[in-house]
Amino acid sequence: MGATATNVLEAQSVSLSYRHKRENKPVLRDFSLQLKAGEVLAVLGFSGSGKSTLLRILAGLRSPDSGKVTIGNKILSGPHPRVGFMFQDPCLLPWLTLEDNVAFGLSFKRQQRISKQEKLERVQSALQEVGLEDSADRYPSALSGGMAQRGALARCLARKPEILLLDEPFSALDAVTRSEMQQLLLSVTKNHGTAAILVTHDIDEALRVADRVLLLGGQPASVAGTWDLTGQSRSTNNPMLVHTRRDIVSALRNGRSDSRCDMPGYLTAVPA
Ligand code: ADP
Ligand code: MG
Question: How far is the CA of 53 from the centre of ligand 1 (A)?
Fold first, then answer.
């Protein structure tokens, strides 16, 4: 990713409140973000801070009350064909084989029409990229959690996305599988120049994969801090990384009135 890369996604002063029993609950206020081509951005925040809400807005699944999201200079008005999503749950359809699940990603609304042959090629190359070419005929029930998440990633990749939006996709996986998935995500974004926004509540995951870390904080939430890690070694004894981690922890502490975050590697649920 070059320093002069263009922005592929922009959010400008986005605000959103949920309405519940005539009450208004403001969740995001005046949130702005610029994502460059090929950039991997991690969005960190406590559980309940509005990360999934933000991602749904960036995915065009929900309109903000005010502000706007633009992709390639066009205002987003619904799901975009060049944007892929991945959630904690791989959401594979149990009655379809893995191969058919991946192909299913190509029949989304607004997806560009492609020939049968190209569809086949895209599915095969996506399965190969995630290392599941030998499991194409399996049904989701015969896949481990990690394999199912690889399948979900393949379903995104077959669509040749320009941007991946990932909502805590690895948080249900064991540590080894999680680390393999983080590496896979990095190689995929690098190989295709795909930008990604990875929502996570794991500081170390953010520090391992991101070019830039954004902390969502406050109530309603907005940008509480950003840290640029472009070009940094991810070795755990890189002093800059150690310093950044400390800085993020301190920003988290400042954003909270209690002192729950003594060692917040994992930002779990906070009492209201
Ligand atoms: P996070 O992903 O960071 O855990 P969410 O975006 O899911 O946070 O939620 C932010 C806040 O908005 C939470 O307090 C949550 O309870 C509330 N919320 C989320 N979705 C809805 C909804 N559809 N209606 C009402 N409140 C919601
Ligand atoms: Mg969430």
Answer: 6
- Residue 51 in contact with ligand 1 by CB distance below 6 A: yes
Q: Name the strand (E) or helix (H) holding 57.
A: helix 51-58
Q: How far apart are CA 13 and CA 100, in angstroms?
A: 40
Three-point CA angle 16, 20, 24, nearest 5°: 45
Helix axes of 175-192 and 145-157: crossing angle, nearest 10 degrees:
10
> What are the tokens at 76?
């987003």
The model's pTM: 0.91
Candidate of 15, 18, 31 to mutate for ligand 1, largest count of ligand atoms within 8 Å of Cβ: 18
Among 250, 245, 184, 190, CA closest to 213: 245
Question: What are the helix (H) ranges across 74-174?
Answer: 98-104, 116-129, 145-157
Cα of 55 to ligand 2 centre, how many Å? 9
pLDDT (tens digit, 9 = 90+) per residue, 21-44? 889 999 999 999 999 999 999 999
* Number of neighbours of residue 176 by Cβ within 10 angstroms: 9
Map residue 264 onto helix, strand or coil: coil
| pLDDT of residue 192 exceeding 50 | yes
Tens of pLDDT along 146-170? 999 999 999 999 999 999 999 999 9
Cβ atoms of 163 and 7 within 8 Å: the answer is no
Nearest to 160 by CA among 117, 213, 211, 119: 119
**Beta bridge pairs of residue 195:** 163
Atom 21 in ligand 1: residue holding the nearest Cα: 18
Task: Give the span between the Cα atoms of 216 and 185, in whole angstroms.
Answer: 22
Ligand 1 pocket, 67 CB below 6 A? no
Whether residue 171 contacts residue 190, with contact meaning beta carbons closer than 8 Å, is answered with: no
